[in-house]
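In this section we walk through a basic example: taking a raw amino acid sequence and producing a predicted 3D structure, encoded as discrete structure tokens. The instruction is simple. Fold the sequence below.
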Amino acid sequence: MSTGEPEHESPVTTADASSHAEEETAKKKLDLDVQISEVGPCKKHLKVTIPRPEVERQFDESLGTMKREAAVPGFRPGRAPRQLVQKRFRKQVSDQVKSTLLMACLEQIDEDFDLNPITQPQLDFEAIDIPDDGPMVFEMDLEVRPDFELPAYKALSVQRPVKTIGDADVDAQLKLFLERYAQLVPKLEGGAEIGDYLTADIKFQHSDGQLLNEAKEIQFRLQPELRFQDGTVPNVGEALVGVKPGESRPAVARIGSGSADPSLRGQQIEVIFQIHDLKQLRLPEVSSSFLNGIGFETVEELREALREILERRLKSQQRQLVRREILEQLMKETPFDLPSDLVGRQEKATVRRLILDMRQEGLSETEIRAREAEIRANAHESTLRGLKEFFILAKVAEAEDIKVEDADFEMEIEAIAARSDESPRRVRARVEKEGLGDALASQILERKALDRILEFVSFEEVPLVEQQAVETLDQTATTYVASDDETEAGDSSSPESSVDEGEAKD
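The resulting token sequence is shown next.
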């Protein structure tokens, strides 16, 4: 460490300089007593004792610095008596000593103990005192990475879903495509069918009839499943098929773990639909003028374009399902617990990341919106799973000596720029400005670790199970408002937090 004085002119060899540096480091190492105890999943409690001689030595150094720099009336700089400087600047010197010792302790503990912290130490600076006599003692809690054995990632057998895209699939996709240009018209005969549009008053209530929330004149499309912002009605299609205006139907809803009301999480409630109106879609005629208007010359050309979309979507589904099963097997083999407060702080970041992943997969905004409601409703489970995936993949990356290189980071920046139709320079500037570099690097590391695992995986091909259509509402089942503490618990960033969802567009 430089003192600011001129360097000696005599030649010094590299070996001598290295030896001198090591001696200086050894001299400055504190004589600490550190007691470490387990206080919960991924949590350690540290009690650190700094002997009095170390405290006095730091007081001497800090007081010497203060004496040289302090401005004391009646004395030139550096000429004031030591006792006067100590008395006049007692608090400043004490704070400097405390700050210097704490910083040195944290650095030394990091070097001497393999604790693998994942957050900053929970340390109350103001509550720490330097006693007039005796050692300085402080305590702190530290969140650390979970400790578990490396899973057998080189011996996995995974099911890979496969499907042949046939004419029936293209027919269904063509119908969905034509619905973009359809007219919504009154349905004058018969009851509701899957795909029709209902307008209804919706009541959310306990099984005993106690009202939780109510939404008036809500229009939604009848699909097999209905999601709202904190839960789902899994069999709404069965409950409402055949219903007509003027009728009322009940259904059972399930509240997700992300509900603002802790008492409702995971519970079943009753939903009452009072139907006011019923409409259906009238598809356009696929004529030459219609085809020309959307950029196609023939129906066959349109169908071929839709087939290509289905093929790309299938490949994306295969990648995601294989990835999910790999991680499912690794987590089953590697059980470990995480502190609930850590999980709670990650939930908002998890939602952002999963939405980003869906946009990267090429899902439509309607599909994203439907899944977003499910993600928000089950944010706790998604976060817990995401954190465990992160820690497992990070351990695999360490075993395989996988690192994120500058070239990897640049490729990711360029990919985001291509998806968002921006320049790489602008994306890079935003990532740096918003402090998202570490989050992006974590994503890259996880992907590289999964790619390495895939090199060892054996596959069994199985039929793809199709997902049923879902409708999503903006309403919630409860009017409960989270407390400030509950809100703040979801605001912190996470070890695996991702680039904001706006950074990746179709």
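Looking at the output, two observations stand out. The radius of gyration is 31 Å. DSSP finds 15 helices and 13 strands in the chain. In the next section we compare this with other chains.
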